[in-house]
């Protein structure tokens, strides 16, 4: 546990008793556990073995135990439409389990821009922003343009036809004209939360006192293209 | 200038005199400027008008002026192969212009994992990591697994055939099994640098004293799916 | 209600009680409501709460109330094959709920061009035309060539193999050699109807007496490429 | 000349003398002509044969003659970035040649939403809006949400990597959550202009006094799915 | 009935009673009928109304009546693997219903080339060949190289992973190095049969005594590129 | 020379002297030769070695010698737009070299359907039809619906944006609702001509007197799915 | 039985009684049989007819009989995650049935590189390595870099969103920067095993005493491009 | 130099002086070197610095020095068409530089299967086979069916339209119904040669006397799905 954070269990494609066994070991060692992508039926069966957990049917998260301490700062979790809520709640729930404070803002799609702009001042106060949208995936561009703090964009598989199960939103977010945002996989609310928490953790610890340096290595940057030639490696 | 940072000029598809005019205004107002994606020929012509700048032929960056102050921490800029250097240097040069300290590590592709692992300890000291790779784009997954700080992955268009001009690396990075990384567009070394600098800026300022909150808004998170129904909006 | 038209509810992925709650608020405020993409089972459950509505199993539309007034003109809703009917009826039903007069023409695919041409004179009388086709999606090109009024093309997911769930028809319509048509998403009969109604609404109101102008703005058109350079923005 | 408008010549892939011959016939018959997608070199050679025309290097339009009369209303031509200008000017120039009044608004990308919102009131006064954007193509969604008149969206091939030469913007616009917009092909400023002009023409003529009707035809809409069965056709 | 052949009913997506009604009209007029893509359950229900038909569960064809006369020649229907049989039998059954003689050859995939070559002499005797294959779709190339008569290739959706539901076989057949073959849609055994029968019909009638000619038309072939310019059309 | 027809040389990617050598051998043996996809410069160089040939710059065909005899019947070569002419002429020229009579019809795209319909009667007299179109590729569907003889469709790479270099036209033709047509590769006018000529050759010879039969083979069609099981093969 | 190995039955899409019949013939002739891709239900039904077999629910393999002799060497079957186990076990089980010794290593994904490196020395001892991974598919690159023996990579359909059902892993493996590996189809554990076994068989037999040679053939390699011209073939 | 083989230099995108520097170091250390993907012009410049090398313009390989010893066995390098020769020669030349005996067979595409079958007996004598094809990529399937030794398939970018720059051949080879082959990247003749040589090296050394085993590891194969659960890892 490099961060004192136990590994999170990806629930998709695992059977209830498999999950139960893993969770048992995690609780024994860490006094807490988190399972993602779990339907209500399997959650119920796992909870029979490990009763003191909490299952949320929107985010499909099942968790046990409280975070050992609070992370500094706040993460805003913002989503475009009601259909994006499961992904937003996967982010929010994961963040809360990781000890982060979350501020939620839902249903602020770009086609009704005033609803978003009404929260403009609050948006700039968030230390990290997770912005979630399906269909054309335009929300993160707009939000990134409104704030200076880092934005993590999550495309969702919401939509039909030209939405291509989230691929359109994904490509749109990657192509976005706004600088200061990066992107995770389609529907990956969990991954965005983890990345956001890693930024808050860094904020907690402050910069490393021993600055990273690869000096002395043969691989540091060339001063010119001609000098860029690699040392011949042999296999 | 929300951050005191002047807008960066995207040089691709702009003529030398257009760039010269924009740069003139930027220098007048901010005493510095940065142009990306500029070939040597146009750079030379722009430098005739604004001679105190510096052009780097690998990164294809042209810049004027020093950053007003240094950002805290270090960003590691790591790339898989020699062919990825232009993208890596676009990141590194942008970061330096933004006032960040950069530690470069080149030619550490996953097919020779020992070269990467030789720098393991240094990697963990970087406050943010930008990891750049073309072809199958596997390097960010491995690096993310070695460190706890945030990783920003940049796919490059290096490769041929099944590499699909960087699309394969892009999709691979988004699908990566490692948590704690996010992705920017193909060859977008600039965007990764900006995102990394926004994290260092946050580190400099610390968390916002007024935590973000959208309370009082009609749009905060539902406690259950049934309550998730949107207020009817009308157009 | 900018147009006096209440927001339409997208039924896909919403539960009956969620829809019922939203519809309740809409009827209270506007005396009418429209839900799209609703299967018979959920429609029946919503109708139990709000009994004075009408459900159509082909279009899968559920609606309450009459339009406050008729729009001028007629919209022709034309489809290529029997399998495209659900999309055509989504268009037609939406238009009727919006107060537009609809003229339907079905099963006039281009492989039997005479069936279409038999209606040539009527086609030219339609003020707006919605043309719906799956498979190769060729019908809108032919119709657009026959008329001078605006054509809105709707690709459908009808077909198999190379039809790629409507993507082929979509790309074909966008590539069409006929000028005077535009395209909406696959199966989006609703969107085409809304666009058609917005044209009829414009027809009803006539041109705005205060012509749009962005004069005085820094962003009006350049007289030459050299002058096109943007004012430097700063973030 | 159904509309009194001569056919427009698509200049791409045609040689100067071919274009010259076609233009000669068009001017003889209509006293005016328009050629699109023409580079400066071929334009110059065509102008030698037909000297009273005007060539614009941004839009790459070459035209002769004035429109016989002005169309009612105004079309707003709005674009996201400087690089989208050639497409925007193809729209604007085509509209002017067709006799429409154009209001231009450039460089109002969604990442700097305030620049767009500054023109909010003017936007609502435009009778038709053409909205042009590359990269993630989010601008049309935002604009459509601000106005009630019809919006025609034009994706451009501007961008790199995940932008896929305009395919990402195209798919994004088609997936957009905003209702009231339709889409034309990538970079097809001409097609959007033609569609916009066809709406203004309709506005000029008013609704057809003989409403379209396909009554009496065997192909009008079924009242239920069971009655939808096609008359057996034979080949 | 241009050919005396009644229209064939595409069974996919139609309800049993819809099909029954259409079939009733077809039998009344033509004394025969053919329905494709019909599952056993709906076939049984249709047969209750029209009992003298025959249903084949492999090809999923349901038919009534005998062809009025035999077509000359033989069509070979050749398929690569057992899993391609439903498509092969859709071809064979359609051909038989159209009055053609069919010679079947199954399970002769290219990975066991001797099984195919054992029939080499018979292959050259077929007047038209329909060659059906999934996966890499290589069989039509090999067969086309062995014979001089026309080959119609049918890709099937058989395979997994890189087979992309038949798209790989389709693209492969279109790219084939063998000349003398053409291709129909994925799984479209029916379409291949119809095309083959149209060739046999032509064989029956012989060449048209009045040779096709578009002389006198403005659109016949240019003698040189310069003369290729189209007459200006006007809309 | 199974058909007495020498192999045709694919000129793309071959050097002039390579082509010259092959052509020399072909002329020595067959007294005639055909090279496709040849630019004017290489054609000129090959003609220096083998002067009695003829080069056509539109079709890019270079040929020597006359066909030994005329094939029966006529092939109509029909194309949608002026830009499709090179492909149409590759078909027409190949057919003429193969001894077939060709009737050309150009610039009859579906957006101006009357130009096509003016030739309706002539179309039905063609024994085989090659129909060529780019962009949405709708022309073959319409033509196939007008005639009973076999249609071979050729998609072209003409178009931009959503045309995807001919892939859209290709997929559209394969998805077409018209029965009686098959498709060859993008821009493959040569392949369509060859297939058409193979049909005329069959017409010349008449059906094979020894009907194809694979009787006695273990691989003939199963009478039911249960019997379809393959003989176990071993490797 | 070129190798004394009976053909393996692909169970997907075959009915239990079909499989039973084939298996009966195989056992009669070879005393053993292997069926792949079989679910438990059909396996049970086949085992009723042929009871002395063994079914494994993870690999979904059903087999009878022992290999006639052991192959020399060992194949390492290595997989990235628990979800890849069914594919890994399809490889391992097939190899065991073919008489190969298998060394399994599971759950050694690149995001936790130490788990893989802990087995570094053992990896170099494997004579052939099958490396299985989904998502970004990076494991084979890393493993190939660690060993000198041949690596066969198997992408799996494990993952979501940008994983595109295994296409991302497939393209990534093909683009890999590591030399010494080749790739089979998505989820094709069987194919990798067969290829590995063919290498072990070669190891068993040693190099062929009569070296392959195509001398005397007209098709051996050219000494220069000019001489590369093919003998004219005729059809 | 794990194998005593120096790293091979990928010449694409490297400048002559960069290559010269790397080659200098390689020759100093290993007395030999190989550069791939080098055009004649850069080759000439590198040869000026290191004159005792040999450049082949077809394969675009530049090499110095002889292999220290011959590998056992023979590799057949087989290609479908003349246009595939550069890739075939990249394989053959690499193999020869690695010390392997090569038997070349060219221009044996599947559309003229007899040319391939004429070499049937020789094919079975090759210890490893590299089979190279563009367009539909069918040749490896046929060859794999004829031999028992391992086949490595190389798709090439030869072809047009539906060939999609080699993607069609690539997908076809991966989907192939023949077992016993694996695939490398498009045009990657080098990679196939390396893989083939690694098999011959294994043949030279024989199986490792210390069989690979991961026993004692927590990660060996589960005996049932329930036991497959991973040990909880923590980060
Ligand atoms: N190399 C780059 N890649 C992506 N975005 C860039 C790059 N260089 C500048 N930008 C962004 O492009 C915008 C300026 O574009 P422009 O107005 O066309 O110069 C600013 O938002 C920059 O942050
Ligand atoms: N830039 C353009 N984009 C799309 N279509 C165009 C363009 N310019 C002209 N056209 C259309 O192209 C057709 C004329 O094509 P052509 O006969 O090749 O000159 C007419 O239908 C025009 O409306
Ligand atoms: N334009 C073309 N498109 C497709 N195939 C062609 C074309 N021209 C010639 N061929 C075929 O290409 C083969 C000759 O290729 P090659 O040996 O490279 O000259 C023969 O099978 C021809 O039938
Ligand atoms: N033609 C080629 N295709 C693929 N990989 C190659 C090729 N030539 C060399 N390589 C590999 O590329 C790597 C060297 O790349 P570089 O350091 O850029 O020269 C080594 O791993 C080589 O095995
Ligand atoms: Mg920002
Ligand atoms: Mg990490
Ligand atoms: Mg029109
Ligand atoms: Mg609106
Ligand atoms: Mg043939
Ligand atoms: Mg027909
Ligand atoms: Mg290795
Ligand atoms: Mg074999």
Give the helices and strands, then pairings:
Eight copies of one chain form a homooctamer.
Chain A: E1 9-10, H1 16-30, E2 33-36, H2 40-49, E3 54-56, E4 61-64, E5 74-79, H3 85-97, E6 101-105, H4 113-117, H5 120-125, E7 128-133, H6 139-146, E8 151-155, H7 167-174, E9 181-183, H8 189-205
Parallel strand pairs in A: 1-2, 5-6, 5-7, 7-8, 8-9
Antiparallel strand pairs in A: 2-4, 3-4
Helix pairs in contact in A: 1-2, 3-8
The complex binds adenosine monophosphate (AMP) (4 copies) and magnesium ion (8 copies).
What report would you give on this structure?
- The structure is a homooctamer of 235-residue chains.
- With 235 residues, chain A is of the alpha/beta class.
- The first copy, chain A, is built from eight helices and nine strands.
- In chain A, strands 6-5-7-8-9 form a five-stranded parallel sheet, with helices on both faces.
- In chain A, α1 crosses α2 and α3 runs parallel beside α8.
- Chain A starts with 8 loop residues before the first strand and ends in a 30-residue tail after the last helix.
- The C terminus of chain A is likely disordered.
- At the A-B interface, α3, β6, α5, β9 and α8 of A face α3, β6, α5, β9 and α8 of B.
- The structure holds adenosine monophosphate (AMP) (4 copies) and magnesium ion (8 copies).
- The site of one magnesium ion has 5 residues of chain G, from α6.
């Amino acid at each position: 546990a490099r961060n004192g954070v136990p590994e999170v269990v990806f629930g998709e494609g695992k059977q209830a008793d498999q999950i139960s066994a893993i969770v048992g070991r995690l609780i024994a060692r860490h006094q807490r556990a988190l399972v993602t992508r779990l339907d209500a039926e399997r959650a119920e069966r796992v909870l029979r073995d490990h009763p003191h957990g909490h299952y949320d049917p929107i985010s499909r998260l099942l968790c046990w135990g409280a975070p050992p301490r609070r992370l500094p700062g706040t993460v805003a979790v913002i989503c475009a439409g009601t259909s994006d809520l499961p992904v937003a709640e996967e982010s929010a729930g994961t963040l809360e389990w990781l000890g982060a404070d979350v501020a939620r803002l839902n249903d602020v799609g770009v086609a009704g821009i005033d609803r978003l702009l009404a929260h403009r001042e609050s948006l700039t106060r968030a230390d990290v922003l997770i912005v979630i949208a399906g269909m054309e995936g335009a929300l993160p561009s707009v939000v990134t343009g409104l704030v200076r703090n880092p934005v993590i964009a999550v495309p969702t598989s919401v939509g039909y036809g030209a939405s291509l199960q989230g691929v359109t939103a994904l490509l749109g977010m990657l192509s976005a004209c706004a600088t200061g945002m990066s992107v995770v996989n389609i529907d990956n609310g969990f991954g965005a939360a983890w990345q956001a928490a890693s930024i808050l953790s860094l904020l907690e610890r402050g910069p490393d006192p021993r600055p990273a340096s690869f000096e002395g290595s043969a691989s540091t940057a060339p001063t010119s293209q001609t000098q860029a030639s690699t040392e011949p490696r042999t296999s």
